[in-house]
Design a protein that fits this description.
The strands form 5 sheets. This protein has a 6-stranded mixed beta sheet, with no helix packed on it. The protein has a 5-stranded mixed beta sheet with strand order 7-15-14-9-12, with no helix packed on it. It has a two-stranded antiparallel sheet with strand order 1-2. Strand 16 and strand 17 form a beta hairpin. The protein is globular and about 65 Å long. About 5% of the residues lie in helices and about 35% in strands. By secondary structure, it is mostly beta strands. It has 2 domains: about 180 residues, Cupredoxins -  blue copper proteins (Immunoglobulin-like, Sandwich), CATH 2.60.40; about 90 residues, no CATH class. The two termini are about 25 Å apart. Pfam families: Cu-oxidase. It catalyses: 4 hydroquinone + O2 = 4 benzosemiquinone + 2 H2O. Keywords: Glycoprotein, Lignin degradation. This is laccase. Its cofactor is Cu cation.
C-alpha cells in the first residue's frame, strides 16, 4: 500500500507538498511508476478558497476548482501540458494513485488497460480487476496494469465524479505512450462500466483481522457530525463551521494538546475536541456515517 503525508495547518495542504510512505504489494509487477497524484487545482490560494467556502452570507457550495492535475500538471485551454509516461509492451506497471484534493472525488482510468487493485490506502488487499478506480479525498489505491495493447498513445483520465457532488469544470488527462511511438494526443476511447454511484468498493484484506460483530455493536457509540453558521466576534461575520461531537476544533498554538499532557493537565478546553478511549492497548474503530441530504463531508 501507500501512505502520504501533508500539512495539517488550516487549509495549507491544498497549496503544499505531498510525500509518500511505501507499503507492501500483493501481486508482482515489473516497474514501479511511483506516486501518481490526481487532484483539483484552484487559481485562488487554498486560504482564499477556504474563506469563500466558510462565508455563510454567500449561501452557495464551496468554490469549484479550476482544473484537475495529473501528477502535478494538465492543460487549460491553450496553456499547460499533459504529463507523459512511456511504457513498454508486456511490462507490468505499478501506479500508486493518491487524491490530495481539496474538494472532489476523482474517477480514474487508463483507456484500454484495466487496473488490478492490490492495495487500498495502506492495506494490502486480495487483487481484483476493474476498469475504473474511484478515489475520495485523501484516499490511495495501488494498482497494476499490463501494457498489452496495440502500441499507441492512450489517455489516462482523472475526472470529477459527479455522484459524489464533486464540483470542478476540469478534466484531468495524461498521455501513456508505448515505446517507439511518436507522442501525440491520443484518439483512444474511454473504458466502459464507469461507476454511477458514490460508493467505495469492499476489497478483502490480504491478511484479515476481523472484529466480532456482536462485540463491535455493543461498544458502538454515536459521534454526530454537522455544520452550522457561527458569529465571529472580531468582525461580526457569519461563517460556516463543521462540528464533530458538537464543536469545531480550535487549538491555541500557545498551548497545544501535547503540552497539556506533558504538564499532567487534563482540563482540556471543549474546543480541543478530545475523545477519550478506555484502553490504550486496544484497537479503536471509527465508523463515520453521513446523514442523507447533508452536505458532503470535507
Amino acid at each position: 500500500g501507500t501512505r502520504w503525508y501533508h500539512s495539517h495547518f488550516s487549509a495549507q495542504y491544498g497549496d503544499g507538498l505531498h510525500r509518500r510512505i511505501n507499503g507492501p504489494a500483493t501481486a508482482d509487477y515489473d516497474v514501479d511508476l511511483g506516486t501518481y497524484t490526481v487532484q483539483d487545482w484552484y487559481y485562488l490560494t487554498a486560504y482564499q478558497a477556504a474563506a469563500r467556502a466558510q462565508a455563510f452570507s454567500i449561501s452557495a457550495p464551496p468554490p469549484s476548482g479550476d482544473n484537475i492535475l495529473v501528477n502535478g500538471t494538465n492543460k487549460k485551454g491553450s496553456t499547460g501540458e499533459y504529463n507523459k509516461v512511456n511504457i513498454k509492451t508486456d511490462k507490468k506497471y505499478r501506479l500508486r494513485l493518491v487524491n490530495p484534493s481539496i474538494d472532489i472525488a476523482v474517477r480514474v482510468s487508463l483507456d484500454g488497460h484495466p487496473f488490478t487493485v492490490i492495495a487500498n490506502d495502506f492495506v494490502p488487499v486480495e487483487p481484483y480487476e476493474t476498469n475504473y478506480v474511484l478515489i475520495g479525498i485523501g484516499q490511495r489505491y495501488d494498482v497494476i496494469f499490463t501494457a498489452n495493447q496495440t502500441a499507441d498513445n492512450y489517455w489516462f483520465r482523472a475526472d470529477p465524479h459527479n455522484p459524489c457532488v464533486s464540483f470542478n469544470g476540469g478534466a484531468g488527462r495524461a498521455i501513456f505512450s508505448y515505446d517507439n511511438v511518436t507522442v501525440a494526443d491520443p484518439t483512444s476511447s474511454a473504458n466502459s462500466d464507469a461507476p454511477t454511484t458514490c460508493e467505495d468498493p469492499s476489497p478483502k484484506p490480504k491478511i484479515a483481522k476481523n472484529v466480532p460483530k456482536d462485540t463491535f455493536r455493543i461498544q458502538a457509540q454515536d459521534l454526530p457530525i454537522a455544520f452550522d453558521n457561527q458569529t465571529v466576534n472580531t468582525n461580526n461575520e457569519s461563517i460556516v463551521l463543521w462540528t464533530i461531537n458538537g464543536t469545531s476544533m480550535m487549538i491555541d498554538p500557545a498551548e497545544p494538546t501535547l503540552e497539556y499532557m506533558a504538564k499532567g493537565k487534563s482540563d482540556y478546553p471543549r474546543s480541543y475536541n478530545l475523545i477519550e478511549i478506555s484502553d490504550s492497548a486496544a484497537w479503536t474503530y471509527w465508523v463515520i456515517q453521513q446523514a442523507v441530504g447533508a452536505p458532503n463531508l470535507p
